[in-house]
Amino acid sequence: MKARTIGTAAAAAVAALAARDLLQKRHALLRNFPVAGHARYLLERIGPELRQYIVTSNEEERPFSRDQRSWIYASAKEENNYFGFGTEVDVAHVQGHAYLKQRTFAGPLPDAHDPAAPLPSAKVLGGPRGRAAAFRPASVVNVSAMSFGSLSGAAITALNEGAAQAGALHNTGEGGLSPYHRKGGGDLVLQLGTSYFGCRNADGGFDLAKLKEVVASAPVRAIEIKLSQGAKPGLGGMLPGAKVTPEIAEIRGIPVGEDCASPSRHSAFGDTDSMLDFVELLAGETGLPVGVKSAVGELGFWQELASMMARGDRGVDFVTVDGGEGGTGAAPRIFADSVSLPFRMGFSRVYGTFAELGLTDRLTFIGSGKLGLPENAAVAFALGADMVNVAREAMLSIGCIQAQKCHTDRCPTGIATQNPWLARGIDPASKATRAAVYLRTLRRELTKVSSALGVAHPSLITPDDIEVLNGDYEARTLASVYGYKDGWGRLGPELAEEITRLLTA
Asked: Where in this chain does the record put each Glutamate synthase domain (predicted)?
């Protein structure tokens, strides 16, 4: 009797669904194929998951392949991150693949297998311009800009504590310095976006007094002015009023429950000249190194910046170049796919602009955009990067599964969401350990590959040490591919000698 009742109810439900499908006018598929047509929408909805785990090969998926994710997961968990039985990459035919050329003999090298071995920057951040709080970053691998609001409080806490354990810097992102950035004790890079969140006055303009208060209240080691980012270069943003909770409103300095539009460009300066005045103002008032972050589009800005810095009276302490493949920020498809140059091309053009004027030893170059993988990071260092920032890779290390739902507030792992029920899935303490282990592992991998190339530090890898496959059977050095002149991509002799001595003493 019970089974018959259940069967009758199920049949009635199917009949009701069929009737609804036949009468609705929104979906032609369902009018033509009532009930059965829903299977198509179900498969479409779970298509990414099917492709992720069943259909695609280990090297096929984007933005991070299964092999790349597996390496990050294994590294973060201190599991075996080696791969057996040879590479799955079609090494003889994949165009654009980079190959590092090991050396037979080498000079003094550090212990490449010590998990606790330091790997500091080869340059003192702010040193060339004599900033009062100049310092040598303890790690060449640091956590990139991701705001509280785009990431949950638990995720920010885990990343900050992980950065502290690994001796790395943690960039706050443009959403302001939140309590979660303070919990783990990690040193911070305070990012200033176009809305000056946390450092703004009532009309949205920059407030120097509030900036100084924020800097004094937390372990801020540097200030980064965000001009643009790889995910959505040249585009402002809108934070809907429904998402402006009392907590976010207090952190960002905006009214509760009201829409907040971020402009596409800064109001505190309007050209390169006034930007440098702003940089010097911040550095003079705080003593901190000050730099800019930008994706790369037209080169006029960079040429003007380098030309003005060549005079020696004003300048940025660091430049963070973000690749157009960057992706932690939600963006319109055209911006994600087609605005700004990919990292290697964009970075090489910016670096070359400063190299032409002999300025490369006078500022620190930071790269971001899928550089949390050893091979990509090695190429960045060969092109002239002094440090790399990791964002999505850091998210993967604390449990991200590349569900690509960051823009929906329904991140299943609780990382890119403000949903309390989803965010509770993150245990900040254990995830912090994983983030720290990942950061240390990436540094160790960079030390290993540097040693294989016969140098003590990744900043000593040159653009002639790496070749890029061009077609089936031709390869060109990075220097040739990106038009580098003799000496480009290399540290000056004094810097090279100093970092080698630090690591091999």
From this structure: 139-455
